[in-house]
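Changelog-linked ticket: 3-methyl-2-oxobutanoic acid example.
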Amino acid sequence: MSKTTKDYIRITTHSLSEMKAKGEKIAMLTAYDYTMAGIVDKAGIDVILVGDSASNVVAGHETTLPITLEQMIYHAASVVRGVERALVVVDLPFGTYQADSKEALRSAIRIMKESGAHAVKLEGGSQIQDSIERILQAGIPVMGHLGLTPQSIYKFGTYTVRAKEEVEAEHLIQDAQMLEKAGCFGIVLEKIPAKLADKVAKMVNIPIIGIGAGADVDGQVLVLNDILGMNKEFSPRFLRRYLNLDEEISKAVKSYTIDVKRKDFPNNKEQY
Ligand code: KIV
């Protein structure tokens, strides 16, 4: 999108690498629907992730595993319709890219064609290298995701900090270098020691976006519902809440219910 036709410039994967080079931090948030994506985009976010965390925060599942490709496409297409400026990245859901690279490419193509999104994100390193390379060869931008990868929760057993031990940290560094070499435009590092994230961010030239990975990375990502305070039960150390929407929504619904019950709503001005 050119500056002459609109009063904004679309964020691209290229813009993100320029931001890293300039030392400008990248702000990324999730969104799952048209209305919220529009608000987040107009507020100036750089990247919107249509995360498979929709499985948790929208659908109420305990893990991200149940969400389907069709459901991700539905969320992604809704988000894309609400966004004018931000780069829209979509998670490939569990089971749509691990079996083989052809299936991975078919899944990524469906997301790009049917939602209009700009890039896909896949969890994992060397074990899915073939899939990542095949998707990239088709011209689809790929973002990596290392550290705590929630689609592997049953392998890990817990959501605690990853790569605290040297062997796992070394493995993560090798995976990050492989993702850069393969052509990924960025990597999400989730819940790893801040020192390790800093080391990776300095080691590779592509942007490193952290969630629970400290301040010395190239950008930050959080789940929108979490920063808005929509779930009091979820309180990890890395989360900063900017609103208590849970309480605000509850107050509004209670007031509306009272107004209806006492026949105060609608009043004379609120009817035809
Ligand atoms: O699905 C998601 O929301 C994510 C972020 C936590 C990075 O992958």
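Closing comment: Example verified and attached. Residues 30, 49, 51-53, 91, 188, 190, 211, 221, 223 surround 3-methyl-2-oxobutanoic acid (CB under 6 Å). Residues 166-182 form the longest helix (17 residues).
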